[in-house]
Amino acid sequence: MKARILNSPEARTIIAVTQKAPETFIESVGKKSAEVMVCPEADNRVDLNYLVRKLGEMGIDSILIEAGGELNFSALRQGIVDKVYAFIAAKIIGGKTANTPMGGAGFEKISEAVDLNITGIEKFKNDILIEAYMMGK
């Protein structure tokens, strides 16, 4: 395992897995400076509500999820998101099979959409960062 985050003693790193994670993976992470937390499953993935509860019991009250569309959707669906940072790049990419920021089942109707309260917009060269909180949180 060559990921820098696994070899960085400056920051506490916790890798959440289910019981389906290979023992060899858990052992190899354990040899690095990271910890492994085995969690129950929800929809064949880590139960994010369980994970957040356990992290809270450990005194961790804020986490960053830098994720793909599937995990982003799961986090929203399971109700663990309070704040969103969305970057918009001044580039046009895409196509039918392109990755999107929101995967999973998604929201097909505007009435199902997640409402955000934008609290900040910042420009970085040609890119834009939008900072927003979930409405009602």
Could you describe the 3D structure shown?
This protein has 137 residues and is of the alpha+beta class. 20% of the residues lie in helices and 27% in strands. It has a 3-stranded antiparallel sheet with strand order 5-7-6, with no helix packed on it. Strands 1-2 form a two-stranded parallel sheet. Strand 3 and strand 4 form a beta hairpin. The chain starts with 12 loop residues before the first strand and ends with a strand.
What would the keywords be for this entry?
single chain; 137 residues; 3-stranded antiparallel sheet; 3 helices
Structure at a glance:
This protein has 137 residues and is an alpha+beta fold.
Ordered list of secondary-structure elements with their pairings:
Blueprint: E1 13-17, H1 23-30, E2 34-38, E3 41-42, E4 45-46, H2 48-57, H3 69-77, E5 83-88, E6 116-124, E7 127-134
Parallel strand pairs: 1-2
Antiparallel strand pairs: 3-4, 5-7, 6-7
- Regions with little confidence, pLDDT below 50 for 5+ residues: none
Q: What is the residue-averaged pLDDT? A: 88
- List SSEs in N-to-C order: EHEEEHHEEE
Identify the strand order in the major beta sheet.
5-7-6
Radius of gyration: 17 Å
The class by helix and strand makeup works out as: alpha+beta
Helix content: 10-25%
Oligomeric category: single chain
Number of helices: 3
Major beta sheet summary: 3 strands, antiparallel
